[in-house]
Amino acid sequence: MSDMTKFYITEEKINEYTITLKNDERADNTVEKYIRDIKAFTDFLNGNAVAKEKAIEWKIALKETHTVTSINSMLAAINGFFAHFRLDIKIKPYKIQKQTFLPDKKDLSQQEYERLLRAAISTKNERLFYVIQTLCALGLRVSELQFVTVESVKQGQAVITNKGKTRTVFLPSDLRTALLEYAKKRQIRTGCMFVTRNGAPLHRSAIWSQMKKLCAVAGVDSTKVFPHNLRGLYSRIFYSKEKDLAKLADTLGHSNINTTRIYIMESSAKYRQIIENLGLATLRYT
Questions:
Q1: C-alpha dihedral over 189, 195, 200, 202, to 10 degrees?
Q2: What is the pLDDT of residue 254?
Q3: Confidence bin at 1 (pLDDT 50/70/90)
Q4: Residues 6+ apart with CB under 8 A from 153
Q5: Do 252 and 260 touch, CB atoms closer than 8 A?
Q6: pLDDT tens-digit readout, 41-72
Q7: Residue 18 burial by CB count (10 A; 0-12/13-18/19+): exposed, middle or buried?
Q8: Which end of the chain has fewer CB atoms at under 10 Å, N or C?
Q9: CA dihedral defined by 105, 109, 112, 118, rounded to 10 degrees?
Q10: DSSP line for 76-109
Q11: Residues 86, 7 contacting (CB under 8 angstroms)
């Protein structure tokens, strides 16, 4: 292959693809992740042209430092990049057997969630208390927190726009009352409810960092504590009460109900108890 037909990843091409992702109304977090993965692959190439063999080498090398799920996510990022530039390259993801339960390290319980809230009270972090409570009570993505405004709290419902879709979430009355008192105390009269001292919406990294700091006080494993896990807890509790997967998908803003199924997996402890309760291994050989 001559140099003229070789494809090199440049900053200009990455910027072009970034614009395409944004025009496709991908979430900001998704765009950031895809570009981060593409840059990681670019670093691996070390100045060489893109080639299927190199992409496969990268895929294999990633197994030393990443989980299969993470690798597949990274492969999706570069496959999208290749498709955009019409390269005849597509790297197959690793096959993963579907898990029917949620790993313990990801299972944030309601008791642990409440311990985080109490830890926020004990450390006098009122804003973080209501950020955590709002994310969990409404099942929001952290990027959707900006749509919880003073006006929406007064109306009792927030209109969420994300990934090209719009949905309405309803605020429980207790949360409405508490947030309005919080806004009054903080002299937040309009716009986003959770802001920095400069009035800008809180960034996801700040929320993540502050949540992690609560873990030691709350006595909760920090690997379980991140904003999206609150959405998972909301989903499991909603489904346990309503048993309506389609309705849950609507409240979460999912267009594919299979995505919603991931959110309602039981913990491994509960799954283990189900197996125990089957009673299929109670007889003994005598």
A1: -150
A2: 85
A3: very low
A4: 171, 176, 179, 180, 183, 193
A5: yes
A6: 999 999 999 999 999 999 999 999 998 889 99
A7: middle
A8: C
A9: 150
A10: HHHHHHHHHTT-S--PPPPP-PPPSEE-GGG---
A11: no
Q: What dihedral angle (degrees, nearest 10) is formed by the CA atoms of 153, 156, 161, 167?
A: 170
Q: Tell me how far apart the alpha carbons of residues 150 and 23 are, in angstroms, rounded to a whole number.
A: 29
Can you read off the two tokens belonging to residue 255?
Answer: 């267009």
Enter the DSSP assignment of 201.
B
Residues 6+ apart with CB under 8 A from 150: 180, 183, 188, 189, 190, 191, 193
Q: How many CA within 13 A on the CB side of residue 267?
A: 14
Its sign, for the CA torsion 228, 234, 188, 209, is: negative
Strands of the chain, DSSP E: 101-102, 157-162, 165-170, 266-267
Number of neighbouring beta carbons within 10 Å of residue 83:
12
What is the chain's Cα-based Rg? 23
On whether the CB atoms of residues 205 and 174 are closer than 8 A, the answer is: no
Structural tokens at position 159? 């209109």
DSSP-assigned beta bridge partners for residue 162 = 165
pTM, to two decimals:
0.65
Separation between Cα atoms, residue 271 and residue 99, nearest integer Å: 11
Cα end-to-end span (Å), the chain: 72
Q: Please answer whether residues 229 and 112 qualify as being in contact, where contact means their C-beta atoms are separated by less than 8 angstroms.
A: no
Q: State both tokens at 150.
A: 């003073």
CA–CA gap between residue 43 and residue 46 (Å, rounded): 5
pLDDT band at 31 (very low <50, low <70, confident <90, very high): very high
